[in-house]
Specification:
Elements: H1 6-17, E1 23-27, H2 34-45, E2 50-54, H3 55-58, H4 62-71, E3 81-82, E4 85-86, H5 89-103, E5 113-117, H6 134-143, E6 148-153, H7 156-163, E7 170-174, H8 180-187, H9 206-226, H10 230-251, H11 261-269, H12 274-288, H13 293-305, H14 311-318, H15 322-334, E8 338-341, E9 344-347, H16 350-359, H17 367-378
Helix pairs in contact: 4-5, 5-6, 8-9, 10-11, 11-12, 11-17, 12-16, 13-16, 14-15, 16-17
Length: 418
Amino acid sequence: MLTPRLALSRRVTAALDASPSRIPVLLGGCGSGRSTVLQQLRERIGRTSAQFIDVERIATTPERFLRAATAASPFPFATAAGPGGIVGGARGAFDRTIEFFTKARSSAGEPALFLLDEFLELRTFESFPGLRRVLREFADAIAASANRFVLTSRYTARTLRLLRDLSSRFEVVHVPGMTTEDVADVLAPLNAPRGMPRDAGSGRGAAASGASHDAEYLARTVLALTDGCPAYVRSMASELAELADQGRDARSAAAAPLHDPISALSALLAPAGRLADRCGYCYELRLHRARGYGALKAILEILAEEEGLTLTEISHRMERTPGSTKDYLSWLEDVDLVVSNQKRYRFVDPLLRVWVRLHCRATAPTDDDLAREVHRYALPRLPASEPKAEPPQSAPQAEPAFAMAGSPQSGGGIIEID
């Protein structure tokens, strides 16, 4: 269960409550929690006053989109269909869609609130006759409307380019990653022995202090390995719970779990793992939204082998001219797969880079491949464990609550990395 990121929710609410209201545009990568924010907002405001629309799922033809959006709407609206369908065909359907978004009202006559997830998918309609500037028309129309809107997109570069010259009513909000406290809240159920309440044993002195230290270190480790992505954190929490149950069953039902984030990450990135599936989906989705599919895959494989390469270095390895390579790189930046820093290119998502190293090859990765790549990724990211306060001589030293696969553990769980 994702923990609410209160600062983000308050900023969105403040934008909607301003006079005139602003239009928050939430930007974040795959699995960053954009849809969750919209759904939480709809539940808080009420389903009769707010409509959530997953644009990506229903952006087929303008006519079908209009029917789907209005059929599920709490706001009364007639589609004005003629004998052969919606009057005016694709152009007429899009005009009616704009009218719906800008003029719909609640049953009490109040302005409507539309929560549009992946709004850039409206661009699908630009392949129909008479519709060449759909996104610009849509943005201009809602900026002039009395209704309220919250928009989201996974494509940061494209959204910023669209909004660059538009109304100041739009407010860009970059969805933040999770904090250590967020991750600790997600992982909290893992840290108590089976059947024991979360607050049980809270007054056990040094043992309770040691357990709290280990839980905090586990949260920092998971945060570092997942780069704070909520979807990755959820997957890691589920995998840790399964591994802990297996280990606990082998010892005793009441034993405290031993958590091994590196083994969990290896399992998640295996061919049948949850993160392997998620990364593969994100990889293909973004590549299919860009041009130059095969060449873009080649560049990602080159950067998976070595990041921080310049345009010239990439073009040499691609065996292509710098001009054509620059186009390919710009198309990758356009769908937020790579980013340039001081003219050196790297992956936006570090775990996606690990996935490319493992899965963009002729054969499936072996267990040895998984162990090697996950350790290569994880070891530089593992947080340093702060030394615990020395307990009184009469109190026994608490045992670490989790272990790292392949990492030496001594001195109270401190991991030494050369």
